[in-house]
Amino acid sequence: MKILKFGGTSVGSPERMKKLLDIVNPAERQIVVLSAMSGTTNSLVEISNALLKEDKKKGIELINTLKEKYDVVVAELLPESAGGDFRAQGQEVVDYHFNFLNSLANDIFTAIEDKVVLAQGELLSTTLYHVYLKSIGVPSVLLPALDFMKIDEDNEPVIPYTTENLTPILEANPDNNLFITQGFICRNSFGEVDNLRRGGSDYTASLLGAAILAEEVQIWTDIDGMHNNDPRIVKGTKPIANLSFDEAAELAYFGAKILHPQSVFPAQKYKIPVRLLNTMEPQAFGTVISTESEKGKIKSIAAKDGITAIKIQSSRMLLAYGFLRKVFEVFERYKTPIDMITTSEVAVSLTIDFTDNLDKIVEELNSFGSVELDRNQTIVCVVGDFGAEKHGFASKVLDAIKHLPVRMISYGGSAYNISLLINTDDKVEALRSLHNRIFE
C-alpha cells in the first residue's frame, strides 16, 4: 500500500480535485491524505481569532463568507448533471459543518474550540471528495483521522495507537483500494480535537506510512521535488533525484520550504521511502528521499532568513568547565532553539531565529560577560556528502563566497552540511555565487 498526500493547492478548486484521478489510480491500494482547500485554513484562523476576542458579529460574518465559497464549490464539483442525489449530499456536508461553526460562535469559545474550528477544513475537503468519487462511480472509503491519529501529553504522535486502530479498518475493507483521510488533525491525550502542528499533512502521511509499513509515501505539491538551490532567486536550478533522510532534513530545516524538517522522521525511522512529486507535472521524476544517497557529491544550497547572532565574550570562560551548559540553560528556560554555534577560548557565538524572549535572554547572558547582537542575518546551508574522508568541498564553498563577509562558519557538526552565517543583504549574491561555483 502507498500513502499519497495532496496539499491545499492540489485540492484548491473543484477542477483540481477532479484532476487528482490523473494521479490517484483506483486500481492500486492506497491511502489518500488531503489538506484543507487552499485559503480555507487561513479563513478558519480568522474566524477563530474573532471568536477568541469575543467579536461574535465578525466571526459569524466570516463564517457566512466562507460558506458562500463552499456553496460554489459544491455546485461546480457536483453539478446536477451528475445525476442521483450527490449534489444534495455535498450541500448537506457543507451545511452541516457551517451550522456547527455557527453553533460554536453562539457558545463559550476557548482554545479547545479553536482547535475544533481549525479541523473543519480537512473534514470538508475529504468528505466532499469522497462524495465526488461516489458521483462518478469510483469506490472509496472515508477514514476519519480522529479515530486513529493521536498525540500524547508531549504533543508527540503515538504510532502504535495508529497501527492498532487503523489496521482493522483496512482489513475490514479487503475489496476496496482507495481510502481517503484527513491530514493535520488528530486527538490529544485528553481525547480532544487537536492537530499535529509540525509539518501538518506531510507529517500525517509519514506517520501513516510508518504505522502500516507502507511501500512508499508520496507528497504531492506544486513543485517538482527539492531543487539544488532556491528557484525564486537563482536561475537554472534543477530538482534533486535522490536525497538521504538526513540531507533532506538539513535542507528542510535551513530553508527548503517544500518540506517541514520533522515531517519525514517517522518514515525515516521505519525506512519508508518518501517521494516528492509535482501535481502539475505528474510525469516528472521528483525527489526520492530514502536511506540511500549518492556519495561524494554536493546536493543543494538553502538559506534561512530572520537569524539573530549572539556573541558572549568573557575571560572567565578560559578553561572553565560548565560554562556552555549555563549558557544553554538560559535558552532552554525561554524555550528558544539554537541553530549554529562556534566557540573560542574567550567567546561563544550562536544563532537563533525565535526572538520573542530575546531581551530576557540577553539580560541573563550579561551576567556571564559582554553580549553583542547581530540582527538581519541569514544562514546559508550547503548540503551533501561531507564525510571526513572527503576533501576539497569546504575550500570550494569558501572560495565561492570569498568576496563576502562571513560572520560564522559551522563545519563538522554533521557529515551532511556546511553552514555559513552572512548578512541578509548578501544572501542573493551568496546563493548565486555558490551555485555558479558548485553546479555550473
Report the biggest beta sheet as strand number plus sense, adding barrel if it closes. Answer: 8 strands, mixed
- Calculate the terminal CA-CA distance, rounded to whole Å: 40 Å
The main sheet orders its strands as 3-4-2-1-7-9-10-8
Q: Low-confidence parts lasting 5 or more residues at pLDDT below 50?
A: none
Figure out the total of helices: 13
CATH architecture group name of the largest domain: 3-Layer(aba) Sandwich
CATH superfamily of the largest domain: Acetylglutamate kinase-like
Radius of gyration: 24 Å
Shape: globular
CATH topology term of the largest domain: Carbamate kinase
Q: Can you tell me the CATH class of the largest domain? A: Alpha Beta
Query: Beta fraction of the residues?
Result: 15-25%
Structural class: alpha/beta
The percent of residues in helical segments reads 25-40%
- What is the averaged pLDDT score? 92
Count of distinct structural domains: 2
Order of helices and strands: EHEHHHHEHEEEHEEHHEEEHEEHEHEEH
Number of strands: 16
